[in-house]
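Holo prediction — BIS(adenosine)-5'-pentaphosphate.
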Amino acid sequence: MKLSPKIILLGPPGSGKGTQAKRISEFCKSPHISTGEILRKAVSGTDKTARRIKFYMNKGKLVPDEIIFSIIRKHLKKTDAKKGFVLDGFPRNVQQSEVLKKILGDVDLIVFNLKVGTDTIIRRLSGRRVCKVCGSNYHMEFQPPKFDEKCDRCKLKLYQRDDDKQVAIKNRLKVYEMESKPLVRYYQKKGFLISTNGERSEEKIFSTIKKYLK
Ligand code: AP5
């Protein structure tokens, strides 16, 4: 069985976790598990759980733990986490990281922390557009689609995430400061943390990350 590293991406909203996670996942040939993506698919349903998830996400708040834990258990099992993975959006607070430790046992992790300032975050999130069909991410300034606001691949109109609107962005930043930032120290103490400047270009950030993947 070929093993790949077990990777976690930390960083504030819009720091580029999803962008780098995709690259790492292709490079390491290991599954990209994004709780944000999984939840966005789940809210397309009309049942009670879907409505509940939507309520929290649209406000920029954390979705309740019992929903997240059941998602993460299922996905880590499905993708055979023993071989390696890239976790993007989980864990999001110390409690979640303790649950992850229980699921995985005592294993080595590589935790990349993308450091980005508030001005950059706001610029990145307010300019982001997404394709509902294939999930491709664009940015109206940094990575615009070729035609209008349409996906290069699917040719359908791109949309702006509800939580990329101003009020939700503010909440997400607050939640990050209170809930997720303490994870930086948590993983630093364990000796797993690699912090890098997330303000650089996607390529430059990935070339730093790659050095730790060999
Ligand atoms: P989630 O989808 O995980 O949102 P997030 O953490 O706020 O992160 P984003 O997806 O907004 O940004 P990112 O860091 O991935 O950056 P990206 O690469 O897209 O979660 C959404 C919600 O789900 C949460 O608010 C919560 O409600 C819920 N949730 C999820 N996980 C949960 C959990 N574990 N527990 C409870 N609730 C949970 O890049 C952003 C933009 O910038 C893009 O347009 C991109 O093209 C551009 N960009 C990226 N890198 C660069 C670069 N280097 N230079 C220029 N532009 C760049």
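READOUT: The chain has nine helices and seven strands.
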